[in-house]
UniProtKB/TrEMBL annotation:
The keyword RNA-binding does not apply. Residues 54-284 form the Tyrosine-protein phosphatase domain. The lineage of its organism: Eukaryota, Metazoa, Spiralia, Lophotrochozoa, Mollusca. GO terms for molecular function: protein tyrosine phosphatase activity. InterPro entries: Prot-tyrosine_phosphatase-like, Protein-Tyr_Phosphatase, PTP_cat, Tyr_Pase_cat, Tyr_Pase_dom. Pfam families: Y_phosphatase (PF00102). Residues 196-265 form the Tyrosine specific protein phosphatases domain. It comes from the Eukaryota. This is Receptor-type tyrosine-protein phosphatase epsilon. Keywords: Receptor. PROSITE patterns: TYR_PHOSPHATASE_2 (PS50056), TYR_PHOSPHATASE_PTP (PS50055).
Amino acid sequence: MASSCLQTKTLGESDVAEAGRRIPDCRMTIELLSLRKEYTQQDYMSGRAQISANYSESVLPVEEFLCHLSYIKGHNTYYNAVLLQSYLEKDSLISAQYPLPDNTEDFLRLVKDFDARVVVFLCPLKDIESTSKWYPSSEGQTKFDGMFYIKNLSSTKAANVTINRLNIQPTGFNQMDITVLECPKWREKQKTSDKRILLDVIKAVKTEKTNEKGRILVLSSDGATRCGPFFVVYNVLEQISVDREVDIFTAVRQIQIRRPECVSTVVAEQTSKKIEVGSDANEE
């Protein structure tokens, strides 16, 4: 992994096209799946103990990489989220499931505890049942959710992405401003990935990350579906920005070790293979 002090350059459409060309082909896909690390039930101890707090019993967090929430009396310390590393920074990314209706406060605690300043929902927020419990949908609106006071500072639209700036104030802790990105055109019922939406949301994340410290939290229904393609392309772009050379196998393996199901979803959809970004770049 490259050092975080390496100098990076601004990514252009040609870099995005290069990333698309370097995504795993079918043969690499088969090899990656064959190398998938086999974890034991003990490795999923927390997820199994809190089975009702998971969207899917088939996607549980590996204990070693689990994001444990800080202890607060009367509250859970579990959320289905794992730390991932980007090409430039260790543990700078988080892969998590959407908040369930009864654990939206835990989702906000995850944001607070792990200083997630950029939060990405890979679908429209309105498609998630729990959104109304914590998210103030219009500018200036506020919400209370457990120990959190949330205010919508602004909402703007970009290409295939809505950018929501929120202020969250946890009782007894410092307030923080976060950016919540959502994909209004990538409906939850869609079974396959939209290549242009995926690239546009990654572009928006990279823009926000230049102005924000803290981690990037990416959420999908189960914490793996849709997240896998996002992280693969994100890390490939980081590699290209540093040295123009990409070890795509290693990039995918880094994600696979910590969230094995992420790579399973990459290959199941063949999302990355379908990202023919070279032709997209020519369209612009």
